[in-house]
């Protein structure tokens, strides 16, 4: 995916303190996403996307249920491979 270089033109106008504040804000958002656990791993993440300056609604395409569930199973299997000693979060999802 090619990124339009003009999307980040606003950074050139920021001073050092503003750039540091922006880096801290982005790091905090990335950490919040990284530290998701349990059922939060499975969700749509508009708060992460909202860290970007461009305001748009992403065009999310949702697979049909059987394919979606197969993807969820593959994702969970990949966690078993990549994090075999991760603690188990054995709780039902409650909205």
TrEMBL record:
<protein>
    <submittedName>
        <fullName>Uncharacterized protein</fullName>
    </submittedName>
</protein>
């Amino acid at each position: 995916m090619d990124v339009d270089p003009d999307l980040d033109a606003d950074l050139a106008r920021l001073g050092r303190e503003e750039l540091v504040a922006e880096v801290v804000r982005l790091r905090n958002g990335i950490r919040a996403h990284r530290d998701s656990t349990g059922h939060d791993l499975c969700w749509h993440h508009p708060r992460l996307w909202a860290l970007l300056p461009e305001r748009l609604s992403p065009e999310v395409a949702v697979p049909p249920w059987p394919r979606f569930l197969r993807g969820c199973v593959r994702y969970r299997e990949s966690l078993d491979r990549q994090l075999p000693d991760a603690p188990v979060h054995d709780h039902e999802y409650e909205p």
